[in-house]
Design a protein that fits this description.
CATH topology of the largest domain: SH3 type barrels
Number of strands: 11
Organism: Secundilactobacillus similis DSM 23365 = JCM 2765
Number of domains: 3
Mean pLDDT: 85
Low-confidence stretches: none
Order of helices and strands: HHHEEHHHEEEEEHEHEEHEH
Largest sheet: 5 strands, antiparallel
Distance between the termini: 69 Å
InterPro entries: CBASS_pafABC_assoc_protein, HTH_11, PafC-like, WH-like_DNA-bd_sf, WH_DNA-bd_sf, WYL_dom
Structural class: alpha+beta
CATH class of the largest domain: Mainly Beta
Protein name: HTH deoR-type domain-containing protein
Strand order of the largest sheet: 6-5-4-3-7
CATH architecture of the largest domain: Roll
């Protein structure tokens, strides 16, 4: 009923009764119950009378235009496609009750729907509930080097960054705050044990505080078929000397295995030029891959 009243100025008791398939007496009882719950619902008599919600309870239309509310729904829809918690669903439903679009929105946000993405979304929702409940979580974890460990943490913050989910929390084993990638978590148990939240060290948990690898500049000659990949990751300013078939790109990359894997993902459409230490190390890495198939 509240959603309907947020959407319209007033609605007659008979209309509401017909919509909910109850009597008008039941509608008036519900009005009394909602008033007791703190929702300011009023009734007016007469030909144009009906049931409504006091204007100051609704969002001021001068503050948020229909376009503003539509933009909020797009933004929340993007978040909801990543993590669909009861709180987010309730917020979306409330805003939808205030928004009756005259035309389709010109913007849509969608994320990858791989099987792994759905599994990680479900895990993120479980961590979100554990954060709200101040619930300890135990899991086995494989770090960037492949080393395994068992952790028990107080979860505090979920972060979605670079198409990856992370959980930030206080590790009881390390007696310090740590950040863990959800895709590196193997087995997980959400314990019944709760904890008293401790102050968050924002500087320690900020993404600027993570390790900064030594960067090296490389030159890449690539086919236009992968131009979009380079633009998405490094921007148009990285590209120069374009022809109908190829282009040259100057990139700054860390000299580590993740970079080698990225370059290999470009397949036969890109080639690192020069003869610097980076290229030597990259050739050694590709030679090691070849030995896996001999």
């Amino acid at each position: 009923m509240v959603m309907i009243l947020l959407r319209q100025e007033t609605v007659s008791a008979s209309e509401l009764a017909a919509q909910f398939e109850v009597t008008t007496r039941t509608i008036y009882r519900d009005v009394d119950a909602l008033n007791l719950a703190g929702i300011p619902i009023y009734t007016t008599r007469g030909r144009n009378g009906g049931i409504g919600i006091l204007p100051n309870y609704k969002v001021d239309k001068k503050l948020l235009t229909e376009s503003d509310i539509g933009n909020l729904l797009v933004a929340l829809g993007g978040v909801q496609s990543l993590i669909d918690t009861p709180a987010i669903r309730a917020t979306v439903q409330k805003i939808q009750a205030m928004y009756q679009p005259e035309q389709r929105t010109a913007l849509s946000v969608q994320h990858a729907d791989w099987t792994g993405s759905e599994e990680l979304k479900a895990l993120a929702e479980q961590f979100s509930q554990a954060i709200q409940a101040h619930q300890l979580v135990s899991f086995t974890y494989s770090d960037r080097t492949g080393q395994g460990s068992t952790r028990q943490i107080e979860p505090y913050r979920l972060t979605y960054k670079g198409e990856r989910w992370y959980i930030q929390g206080y590790s009881l084993e390390r007696a310090a705050f740590r950040t863990f990638r959800l895709s590196r978590i193997k087995t997980v148990t959400f314990l019944a044990t709760t904890f008293d939240p401790r102050p968050l060290p924002e500087e320690q948990l900020s993404w600027g505080g993570f390790d900064h690898p030594v960067m090296t500049e490389i030159t890449l000659v690539a086919d236009n078929v992968i131009r979009d990949v380079i633009v998405e990751r490094f921007g148009r300013q990285a590209i120069r000397d374009e022809t109908a078939e190829q282009f040259t790109a100057t990139l700054e990359l860390p000299q580590r295995e993740a970079t080698y894997r990225f370059l290999l993902s470009l397949g036969v459409h890109a080639r690192v030029t020069g003869n610097d230490p980076f290229l030597v190390a990259f050739k050694q890495y590709t030679a090691m891959i070849l030995t896996q198939y001999q």
